[in-house]
Design a protein that fits this description.
46% of the residues lie in helices and 18% in strands. It is an alpha+beta fold. It has 2 domains: 74 residues, Winged helix-like DNA-binding domain superfamily/Winged helix DNA-binding domain (Arc Repressor Mutant, subunit A), CATH 1.10.10; 162 residues, 2-Layer Sandwich (Beta-Lactamase), CATH 3.30.450. The strands form 2 sheets. It has a 6-stranded antiparallel sheet with strand order 6-5-4-9-8-7, sandwiched between helices. The longest helix has 17 residues.
């Protein structure tokens, strides 16, 4: 599995999910289109064809044809001088109705920003994507050392605070299935036995929050809780992460801030 450099620990990009049998895929252009826009979301800058090819591991002729078609449809802008491509406002407008609906049901970005200001640590919102927790929004503090998170990142659910918070809302049978799939994909040193992981789940259910201490990214800790989704039925989780020493000192503050986030957010739904 590919890793993204520039951040401590392993991180998984949306196009690297390997738990889907690729031999069953039949609509490659649709998958590649979505992967391309996930890539733009991750890097948040204009990209060249070469950069897209390397990131998505797609042959250059296929990438060239894909971006040319998207330019013709008005979804990408082509800078001929720089030889780069970037999404147009049309992409933003496609999801604008969802943003307005979510806004009426609670401005999640504003709540996340307030949480970051209260804790002065990285704040994250994540959802489940297969056996992974996917970060869909993040706010980074102005700290020299901080947990570096980018929207779109995927990490194994059993190893993250966000993932564990989401898993704690599932049935024991659902947890066992995800854990079995996770164990099949990682080195033996990273696997969990079902009894030890269920003990962890029961503790999270009792405490009302999940916490990791370097489980995913060495030297960093995160605390997360599950909250209702503003749209649809997929649960979401919100978390706060940073260096272990700072999170340990701020634990009470973070738990109070997360409780306030949940209370204020739920009252706006």
């Amino acid at each position: 599995m590919k890793t993204l450099p520039n951040v401590g620990g392993e991180q998984y990009a949306p196009w690297d999910i390997e738990d889907i049998d690729k031999s069953t895929r039949s609509i490659k252009s649709a998958e590649r289109t979505l992967a391309l826009f996930e890539l733009f979301s991750l890097h948040q800058k204009a990209l060249t064809i070469g950069e897209i090819c390397r990131a998505l591991d797609i042959p250059q002729p296929s990438v060239t044809m894909l971006v040319r078609n998207l330019v013709k449809m008005g979804y990408l802008e082509h800078d001929r001088g720089a030889r780069t491509y970037i999404p147009t406002i049309r992409i933003m407008l496609l999801g604008s109705w969802l943003h307005r609906l979510a806004g009426r049901k609670g401005d999640m970005e504003a709540h996340l920003d307030a949480l970051m200001n209260a804790t002065e640590e990285t704040t994250i919102i994540g959802i489940q994507n297969g056996i992974y927790s996917q970060y869909v929004s993040a706010q980074l503090p102005n700290q020299p050392t901080r947990l570096e998170i980018q929207s779109g990142m995927l990490r194994p659910m059993p190893r993250t605070a966000v993932g564990r918070a989401l898993l704690s809302r599932k049935t024991d049978a659902e947890i066992a299935l995800i854990l079995r799939r996770y164990n099949a994909e990682v080195d033996a040193s990273l696997r969990y036995t079902l009894p030890e992981f269920m003990d962890l789940m029961n503790q999270i259910r009792e405490d009302g929050f999940a916490q990791t201490m370097g489980d995913m990214t060495g030297g960093f800790s995160a605390i997360a809780i599950a909250i209702p989704a503003p749209i649809g039925k997929i649960p979401i989780a919100v978390g706060v992460g940073g260096p272990i020493d700072r999170i340990t000192v701020k634990k009470t503050l973070i738990l109070e801030a997360l409780a306030a986030f949940s209370r204020d957010y739920n009252s706006s739904l």
